[in-house]
Amino acid sequence: MFLSDNSVFIPVENPNKDPQRTANNRLAMERRLTTFDEIEAVYTEEQALNEAARCLKCPTHWCQKSCPAGVPVTDFIARIRQKDYEGAYRLIRTASTLPEFCSRVCPQEKQCQSNCTRSIRSMTVGIGRLERFVVERHYNSGGEAPAPVPTGKRVAVVGSGPSGLSAAQRLADHGHSVTVYEKNDRPGGLLEYGIPNTKLEKGVLARKIAAMEAQGVTFRACVNVGVDISADQLIQDYDAVLLTVGTGNARTLKLEGSEGVTGIYPAVEFLTSVTKSLLDSGLTDGKSISVQAKDVIIVGGGDTGSDCVGTSLRGHCASVTQIEMLPKVVGREIIRSPYVQPEKEKKVDPSMEECQAVFQKDPHLYQTTVKAVQADETGNLKSVTAVALQPVYDDHFRLTMEEIPGSEQTIPCQILIVAAGFLGPQSYVAEAFGVNTSPRSNICTDGYATSTPKVFACGDCRTGQSLVVKAMVDGRDCADAVNVFLTK
Question: Could you say which of 22, 82, 195, 295 has the lowest number of CB atoms within 10 Å?
């Protein structure tokens, strides 16, 4: 069979025809509920080789085309089959600057794995699990990045979340001297404090930081640019400055009776408090937001809301409810479709499993929202008023959710966590650098260059809230644009 580039397609010899994906080890439920250790274990070599043999190395490479980073999926899996694990890692690194994190937190079932040819008749290949195996093999073997030729150019990166780390890594790969400024006490941003250890053990992040430092990247924590150091100073001291400050303005809810009430928290504040206390003292310093013996309600049905469910369970809450505005199943039947519609792969939600184990119920309350709160005589939250919603489609099949009159119910609640996403970055950094912003407060760019000379921006502060992998790609591509600017 000849491909479009006139090369010959060579089928995989002796593929593994097992329709089921190779299972990896997981923490036992009783262990999960008493620890913040990562739930998913890394493939053993035997498991990885077994799963790699399931890849048919399709000539169309739909998996690669569905990856935001463009990772050469079938090629790196072929290297696994050859037991060339370092070669597989190098292939991944041609596209991904942060495979340590993407292999753990990417929603592969919606991206690379969503178009795997195996899904036509069986389960998709476990691409994320194989990538994670390769990453761990690289670190366990003591693999190091090749030292590039120094360019003599100096770049400051403001922010150390996914886009900041990605940009710093790529700039270091180009040979530039990079200094990363982080306002918090530890670098990593969202990766450090916004994602629980159960998904991303912080030793993985510390290991990546150490590898970047060995490559020459400098990290300066507890430095709030625009407050502790001026924007003018950075512009003067460096050949280029990258703003990668993410989105810091959490969405809030306009709730009746909420003014002055204690017990309402943004999700990122709740998760940060728990993770920081865990890292600082093993949760013994009393500085985390405590949910012990309290009724917890989480507004938001996304991954962050689910992370709050799992964290609340480990904090020994009395009950936990995750409120979701949308119906449990959203979609319309495709009329007169001549094609069989394959069932979409559904990711197993660990927090739902855990809630079933503890409270014998699904934590979700669908087609519902919170409209008011009630406090006790001391101002502490005691309950919320929830109202049911009904889906309504307009003439263009756009979905809106409307309240059902008379459906209000009062639910006991002493901790209300709002996981409704972010509106945009905090304004003070943009103001300090004098860069233009959009009505949603995102930093405006031409390509990646801002309105201020020598200053670039990437990641969520430029594009709005997105996935870790997309922030990583934006940081990678911005670094390439900065490299062109520096080497003209």
Answer: 82
